Amino acid sequence: MSAVLYGAPSTASLVVHWLLIELGVEHRLEMLDFEAGEQRSPAYLALNPQGRVPTLVIGEQVLTESAAIAMHLADLYPDAGLAPAVGTPARGDYYRWICFGVYTLMPAYRAWFYPDEPAGPAHTGVVRDRARVQIEAAWQQVAAHLAVSGPYLLGRDPCTADFLLTMLMRWSRAMPQPSDRWPELAAFARRMKSRPAFQTACRREGIQDWL
Ligand SMILES: N[C@@H](CCC(=O)N[C@@H](CS)C(=O)NCC(=O)O)C(=O)O
To answer: Residue 117 above 80 pLDDT?
Structure first.
């Protein structure tokens, strides 16, 4: 199966790019220029009405939302073992951690990186302060979980949720309290970043930090 990934360097498309390489999926990259507003071009909005990345076109399907794409890829390539079997307790934990990324971390990051969205330009300071508190509390929770149940979110082996979490950790690298200040998270990130597919994805996106 071949695929086209619409993304932008160092954004939410990274986890999809990484998984495409990790899973050996034949693909083409279409990197959008955010500065030029390409994510809001009529052609792109026809694919992704939110005007955000990533979008994956795989076979006949157009799929958006990084976590949904990541879970779908894991299901399409079960031999890689990146998603526990449906109906098992591990699958429940897997959903939990994917949802934690999507419901807890992503909205807080959106507020951090786009602080005028919730309440306009006059309130960006308070929005960012609140986002920072939420993000740090989330990392504290993940670190506590890994300390007891690690080295990966589900224990011994990595799953797609670990890939998503690694990308979300990366987004905090320039924040006042980066996620890898927590030793458990730093160790986790080191392990995930040492995967050759992560390094390849970063190289292809021109990423030079947090490698
Ligand atoms: N929930 C979406 C979030 C996507 C998202 O916010 N992407 C950002 C980059 S990290 C984006 O496309 N920003 C461009 C814009 O909002 O104009 C997902 O995980 O796919």
So the answer is: yes
Q: Hey, which of 52, 98, 113, 207 would you mutate to test ligand 1's pocket, going by the most ligand atoms within 8 Å of its Cβ?
A: 52
Give the Å distances, CA to CA, from 76 to 53, 61, 70, 72, 196.
21, 13, 10, 6, 21
Count of CA atoms in the C-beta half-sphere (13 A) of 78: 4
Q: Is the pLDDT of residue 32 over 90?
A: yes
- pLDDT the model gives residue 1: 74
Cβ–ligand 1 distance for 170 under 6 Å, the answer no
Give the three-class secondary structure for 104. helix
Ligand 1 neighbourhood includes 25 CB (under 6 angstroms): no
